[in-house]
Structure formats: structure tokens, C-alpha cells
Design goal:
The chain has 2 helices and 6 strands; from the N terminus they run ββββαββα. By secondary structure, it is α+β, with helices and mostly antiparallel strands. The chain starts with a strand and ends with a helix. The structure holds iron/sulfur cluster. The site of iron/sulfur cluster has 14 residues, from loops.
């Protein structure tokens, strides 16, 4: 434990939009039960890149006693997150076709980030 800068999340202000998750280069922030949370204090380096994206002003950087930032743990966490995105989402959500069978395009549907293949895309666009 040491006195250091660390992100504080005011849950009374947080609307759970999730905008702060991506700017965190350490993977420290996740949305749990509709609220942003610093999952492990060792993952937050207190840089505060998440602050600027918050539309509610729920994020601040404060100085307080916290466990030291763990650079190796942060690198491991980001590798896991990246692997999950790369390996799980590589098929067309509409037909199941993989990127090995054709071109996939990123798309958004009902709050989810998905892939759609070139064959399905015209039908998805025009109905
Ligand atoms: S950006 Fe702000 S309002 Fe949105 S989840 Fe993060 S802390 Fe909550």
C-alpha cells in the first residue's frame, strides 16, 4: 500500500454507459450491475484517460492509500481482453460464416458489437 493517484467512481452519478471502459489501457474498469467499477486497484495506474469521456462527471482521480500499480497484471488483463475479442467475435452473427470463408464487417445491433459477412450485409441493410 502506498499513497498514490487512483481513479474514483461516484456510483450515484454513473449511468453505466460504459464509455470509460475502452480508454482504460490497463483494463481496470468494467461495468457491473449497470455501474462502472475499478475491478482491481492494482490495475489502475491513476493516469485518468477515462475521465474525459464520462458524460456524467462520475470519474475523478484522487490521492489515497492503495495497492501499488501492477504493470504485469495489467498487461495480462489486456492480453486476455484482446484475445476474447479476437477469438470469440470472428463469425457472422447472421449466418455463422467465419473470416476464413469471406470478408467480415463490424456492426452494432441492440447494444452489441458484432460481425456481419459480405453475403448477409446487403440483406441486413435493405431488409
Ligand atoms: S463513462 Fe461515466 S457514466 Fe459512463 S460508465 Fe463510465 S463512469 Fe459511468
Amino acid at each position: 500500500m502506498a499513497l498514490r493517484s487512483i481513479v474514483n467512481i461516484d456510483e450515484t452519478l454513473c449511468n453505466g454507459c460504459g464509455l470509460c471502459v475502452t480508454p482504460c489501457a490497463e483494463g481496470a474498469i468494467e461495468i457491473v450491475d449497470g455501474k462502472a467499477k475499478v475491478m482491481t486497484e492494482e490495475l489502475c495506474d491513476g493516469a485518468g484517460f477515462c475521465l474525459a469521456v464520462c458524460p456524467e462527471g462520475a470519474l475523478t482521480v484522487e490521492k489515497r492509500e492503495a495497492p501499488d500499480f501492477d504493470e504485469q497484471l495489467a498487461a495480462k488483463k489486456m492480453t486476455e481482453k484482446l484475445a476474447a475479442v479476437v477469438t470469440i467475435k470472428q463469425t457472422c452473427f447472421n449466418c455463422g460464416r467465419s473470416e476464413m470463408d469471406g470478408v467480415l464487417f463490424p456492426c452494432r445491433l441492440k447494444g452489441e458489437s458484432l460481425w456481419a459477412c459480405a453475403r448477409c450485409l446487403p440483406q441486413l441493410i435493405h431488409g
